[in-house]
Specification:
Strand order of the largest sheet: 2-1-3-4
CATH architecture of the largest domain: 3-Layer(aba) Sandwich
CATH class of the largest domain: Alpha Beta
Strand content: 5-15%
Order of helices and strands: HEHEHEHEHHEHEHEHEH
Distance between the termini: 82 Å
Largest sheet: 4 strands, parallel
Oligomer: single chain
CATH topology of the largest domain: Rossmann fold
Shape: globular
Length: 287
């Protein structure tokens, strides 16, 4: 019995050592792969998807404003500032997003060597409306600007980034065609929102956004009366609200117009799928 056990011990030890060696190799390989990726920081969730679509497995993305947080008031955590200090590239929306207005100068001082990409470069802006990403045609320009930034930092992988970008641009074209088809034939093209995030989408598809809130100011009785008047004749009186904001004001408006509330997220994490959901809810509201 003792002899048999003694004969088995070396095999067990060898087996365990083999597992340990494999685990160490896999762990080191994983860390090496992560280190070799371009460290990219973005301000908001949609930009993270755009970077990942173009960058694929050659980027490692950190988002400053996390899911559920508002870019109008968010303050970064120390761990996020550390990520900025190590980043090769920062992608900003480049419009009047309050987080960027408050923090970009500070973030650039933390890491003066990182490339800052203005993703909205070349987009026709609507005054101070910062929500450029909520238009598939704008998204195409934003992804192209991001791809250009990746290529400038990593020219040896230029073909990889451009191939990924072109594939995503085709998907955005399909999203645009599908959106137009679903909106085709609607006679009443009005929809009500509490926070006016959907101006670019409305502009592109000949829709009318009826917004309760104006420039982030507190809702007044006059605002509510104006929305009530504009909503007359609408079959479905739905007030769309953003999950990043309080819904108390929207509840009052919905009650006054004899309607209801629904969520419509202006910070899509998975752009293609989430924007299809947005269009579906708008179509349902405008039928």
């Amino acid at each position: 019995m003792i002899r048999r056990l003694a004969n088995r011990i070396p095999r067990i030890v060898i087996f365990l050592l083999a597992i340990a060696a494999f685990s160490l190799t896999w762990s080191c390989g994983k860390k090496t792969a992560e280190v070799s990726r371009l460290a990219v920081v973005v301000s908001i969730l949609p930009l993270a998807d755009f970077v990942e679509q173009a960058g694929g497995d050659k980027v490692n993305v950190t988002v400053m404003v996390p899911p559920g947080a508002s870019p109008h008031s968010y303050e970064p955590k120390p761990s996020q500032l550390v990520a900025v200090s190590k980043a090769r590239m920062f992608v900003e929306v480049g419009t009047d997003v309050e987080f960027e207005l408050a923090w970009m100068d500070k973030l650039m001082k933390i890491n003066k060597d990182m490339l800052v990409v203005n993703s909205s470069q070349g987009i026709r802006l609507m005054g101070k409306d910062p929500h450029v990403w909520l238009s598939p045609s704008n998204a195409k320009k934003m992804v192209t600007n991001i791809c250009d930034g990746l290529v400038s930092l990593d020219p040896q992988n230029q073909d990889y980034y451009i191939t990924n970008k072109n594939k995503f641009l085709e998907q955005l074209d399909e999203l645009d065609r599908n959106t137009r088809e679903r909106l085709n034939g609607l006679t009443d093209r009005r929809f009500i929102v509490y926070h006016p995030a959907w101006g670019y989408l409305a502009r592109d598809y000949d829709l009318e956004q009826i917004a309760v809130e104006e420039e982030g100011k507190e809702t007044t009785a006059d605002n509510i009366k104006e929305v009530v008047d504009k909503s007359k004749g609408m079959r479905h009186k739905i007030v769309f609200v953003s999950p990043q904001f309080s819904t108390k004001g929207a509840e009052v408006v919905a009650h006054e117009i004899g309607g209801s509330m629904e969520l419509l997220d202006p910070l899509p994490e998975h752009y293609l799928a989430d924007m299809r959901t947005v269009v579906g809810r708008l179509v349902q509201a405008m039928r």
